[in-house]
Amino acid sequence: MSKTLIGLTVMSIVVQILFSFYYSSNIVNQNNQLDENKQKYQQLKIEISEAKKQLSQLTSIDHFLQSTPSSTLNPVYKHIEILTY
Amino acid sequence: MIQRYKLLLFAYIFCFLVLISRFFYWQVLKSPKLKTQALSQIYKLEKDTPTRGNIHSSDNFPLVINDYNYKISIYKPNLTQDLDTILSKIDQIHPGFINENQSVLDNFKNKSQQKWVDLKTLLPLSEKEKLQNIDGVYLKLEESRFYPEKSLASTVLGFVAHNSQGNSIGYGGLEAYYNKQLSGKTGFVWSPQDATGKTILTKKSWNSNSTNGLDIYSSINRSVQYQTEKILKEGITKYQADSGMITIMDSKTGNILAMASLEATTSATSDPSKNPNISNLFEPGSIFKPLVMAMALDKKIIDQKYICDQCGQPRKIGSYTINNWDNTTHPNSNVYDIIKNSDNIGMSHIITKLGLNNFLEFYQKLGLNKKTGIDLQGEVKPSIKTNWPEIDLATASFGQGIVVTQINILRAFNSLTNGFLVTPKIVGFFKDDLGSIIYPKVNPNLTVFSFTTIDQMKLILRNAVENSVVSTLKPKYMDVCGKSGTAQVAIKGNYTDSSTIGSYIGFSPCDQPKFTMIVTINNPKSSSWGSSTAAPIWFELAAKINFLL
Predict the structure, then answer these.
(1) What pairing do the DSSP bridges indicate for beta strands B215-218 and B55-56?
(2) 3.40.50.2300, 3.40.50.300, 3.90.1310.10, 3.40.50.720: CATH of B42-61+149-218
(3) What's the CATH number for B222-264+276-545?
(4) Separation in Å, CA B104 to CA B101, B138, B271
(5) 8 Å CB contact between B215 and B243
(6) Top-tier CATH class for B67-146
(7) Per-residue pLDDT tens digits for B134-189
(8) Which of B57, B86, B92 is nearest to B73 (CA)?
(9) Residue A72 has pLDDT above 70, yes or no
(10) Residue B303 pLDDT more than 90?
């Protein structure tokens, strides 16, 4: 009787220790995952803003004028009047 | 033996009591303080900073967006390589780095007691990735504003800087006026963290989510704004002026399409958050005449058949003489001639007929004594005098002795397009992260002039363009209603010819106008007249933007 009781007690302690190891490692993994996701989110945020910045730079009037050889030319506003009777 | 036993017992009891009292002290009396200290070590309060909203032009192009860069810091004790080797490595990645920070780096190298230095160079993401894992070199993420169109519409946009508490806030323009909407709401997270600073998920945490700032979609037309700044710059150089301002408004809605101001030489003391178009007060001069004429027509004091039979000679009021700008007189002028010739004598007679009370009633209706309510930071309220002797009322008819801002006079003049006083505005709508659109509050338009008055004034103003010196400036395909003005600048209470403000104001086309524009040129040296400085700029710009609107 006493041997069975001691055996059960020891077993329950071992199970408890194993479970606590599993549980704590699970928490650590989740914490690491959360941290990684946070960093990834921050990285993506910066990459998106960088892409937006480059897109806006490439489509700006300023860039267009600097990269177009005809940028210094003015459009012709002259016109002829056609008289109708 | 018993004696020693008692002594030992007494010593035990004493020690026990001392222990209990210490336990009581730490666990009961000091409990709240220790609990707070323990929590502060485990729990950390982190700020969840929202992203500031972007500002777009009317074609949805971003005029201001957020930019993320990395700031470099160096900590001497942690360096494992020679400092010069590290600096030249950074210079290879970011050319010009050493030159940019030369003086700071020289000090850092020479002063052995200085262990830490923050450098002003900001590295983009691509360069930051090449610079990782150098012992003693630290990179910190910095959020800043980026302007794809460089300085375009800078006085309208404003800028963002750190205040004394280290928080980013807007200064000037839209950045300041809509700082609250652009900033969003800061969030907070109070969570337990392990020794490495990572959040412990199993423990209780508290958080209030941040809300990103709203994006602004403005009425600024990027192409019109670009042309406005370009032509203004060329005009200031051509006419050797000190400075200039241009504002263009959508005649129907009051939306500002472009707003620019420029100084020939930028002084070190000039305030970058100041927008002269809404804060500089000046005497409008002859561009004010059409408004006085409209007041008299609206009150039926005069009609279109009015003939000024006293216009053949200068007008004397007390010791003052009112003369025309070219010292000529125009006998028997009608309302068309008075505006076309910019006749001071004729206008002074009309305002005398109108009377002070009627004049002040319209002055208030036109909002010339108050702010327009434009959604930009720094608008100045014009003041109006309380004492009106006869001569002051007479000179007010040609815009002397009264002060307005450019946005003030533009709004008032715009009422001649449809009879309504609109509220000038820059922001069309806001958009949040989810794409929901929020419209700002719109002020109702106020009626100032009747449609009959407006029709009469359009004929008068069209005649002033078609049959005056500015007619040669007008492209044949355009229909323009406008008026030039030259105001002498009062120096120490006296008007001089040495300093003038030349203006041209008008709208096009006269019927159902697309835009109302004002050009103001401060102290031009090549010619002092608004018709030969501001007017050429007005028509050149009008010809270009006519195709864009």
Answers:
(1) parallel
(2) 3.90.1310.10
(3) 3.40.710.10
(4) 5, 17, 27
(5) no
(6) alpha beta
(7) 888 898 888 899 999 999 999 999 999 988 887 889 999 999 999 999 999 999 98
(8) B86
(9) no
(10) yes
So where are chain B's domains? 42-61+149-218, 67-146, 222-264+276-545
Report the C-alpha gap between B227 and B149 in whole angstroms. Answer: 13
> Looking at beta carbons, which residues of chain B come within 8 Å of A50?
68, 124-126
Q: Is B202 on the interface with A (CB under 8 A)?
A: yes
Range of the structural domain that residue A17 is part of: 2-66
ipTM of the complex: 0.77
Structure tokens belonging to residue B99: 């030159």
H/E element holding B494?
strand B494-508
Is residue A20 pLDDT above 80, yes or no? yes
pLDDT digits (tens, 9 = 90+) for B484-494: 999 887 766 66
CB of A60 within 8 Å of any CB in chain B?
yes
Burial B396-414 (b: 16+ CB within 10 A, else e): bbbbbbbbbbbbbbbbbbb
Q: Where are the alpha helices (DSSP H) in A1-85?
A: 2-58, 61-67
A26 in reach of chain B (CB within 8 A): no
Residue A84: pLDDT band (50, 70, 90) is low
